[in-house]
Amino acid sequence: MTEFEAYFSGEKIYLNGRKCVKVGETLTKLLSKPTGYYKEVLLFAKNYENRLHYPEDEEEAYNSESFFQEAIKFYAGVEDVIMRLPPYKYLEVVGNRLQDTLNEYAWAFHEYPKMSVLDDEDDDIDYHQHFYVRFGTEDMEDPDMLNEIYTLNDKLKKLAVEMRTYLEDILRVEYAFTAFLERIHSRNRFLTNEEIADTLAEFEDEKKLRMYACDYLRTSGSIQLDYKRLRIKEKTELCEHYKFTSLGAFLYIELFKGLEMHYIPRKCSYCGRWFLIEAGIYSEYCTRPVKGRDDGKTCRDLGHFKKYSEKIANDPIWLTYNRAYKQHYARLLKKKMTQAEFQEWADYAIKLRDMVEHKKIEFDEYYKKIRE
Fold it and tell me: What gap in Å lies between CA 154 and CA 197, rounded to an integer?
């Protein structure tokens, strides 16, 4: 269910060769979803993973119907989550897998709890809704029948592991990807390849402080890569063709592809929501319209103004720069400076500000020169 293919072409990803999304888009959307609820769901998934098998003894056989019905309901809920969230919401995902898997071995179950004349009707049932078991594997003597049951158990185990892995991948988005991205954005600019490598190494060095699988920034499942031709509209492109067996495998590749191409999820410093930085100019603010305003101002508009105001209020370097800028702009308005002279001074002022911020000149010298 969680297996899919993805074709990478530049900043575009074609899911299963069809749905086109940007690099980083899927991770950004998942970062925006609350996941605290899934911690408890993961505990249930681990419990079912340990118990999901064909009944072995008389007690398990007696409780088979209630157990399988509970498991079917639980996994249907997990499948519903999968189908509502990206990337699977864009793919043709089939649910109800546990019930379908059990029905592949319909001969091993009964539709009715007790032996009766109704048992003959089991042979006419195309699809079981109930899964009563009369006796467990301990009482089976037919080796061929046992081999079939063991094959069923392998399929049930694979399904349970797949569902548990998906939930861990979803939780990893919040607990590992979020923490790593916070470090990536701590300098408020695009990082070089070397800086990304150092950041990753520092993050990995803290493994001892982490308790759960979802706290680790790593892939899950498996990844296969080759190169394939993909026809997109009227042209053909050579793409990196990946086969992912899990969501985590895809997100891991998407994250580092995005870091390389500067398509990086970031939390807006104004509204607190996640957005995707799409190469170009780095910004800590998104371009969403600010709620409650009718002037069309965006977080980026107000965020930069707020940041500038905070710098002026708290940083003497910026306060000095702002006052000098106002003085020279007033001269321009009074025609005591030409536009060319003002622009020359403005460029000079920025250079002075950068020099004092990087400790290349003393503040007193900066204060004197910027006011000339």
Answer: 40
Mean per-residue pLDDT, 232-261:
96
Domains of the chain: which residue ranges?
Answer: 1-283, 315-370
pLDDT tens, residue by residue, 129-183? 999 998 999 999 999 999 999 999 999 999 999 999 999 999 999 999 999 999 9
Q: Report, as an integer, the average pLDDT of 92-111.
A: 93
Question: For 250, how many CA atoms within 13 A lie in the half-sphere containing its CB?
Answer: 31
Query: β-pairing, 223-232 with 263-267?
Result: unpaired
Residues contacting 299, CB < 8 A, separation 6+:
268, 270, 271, 285, 286, 287, 288, 290
Q: How far apart are CA 152 and CA 158, in angstroms?
A: 10
Residue 234 is classified by DSSP as: T
pTM for this model (two decimals): 0.84
Identify the helix (H) or strand (E) that includes residue 230.
Answer: strand 223-232
Integer-rounded Cα radius of gyration of the chain: 30
Q: Hey, what's the torsion of the CAs at 309, 312, 314, 318, to 10 degrees?
A: 140
Token pair, residue 203, equals 């993050």
Tell me how far apart the alpha carbons of residues 8 and 358 are, in angstroms, rounded to a whole number. Answer: 41
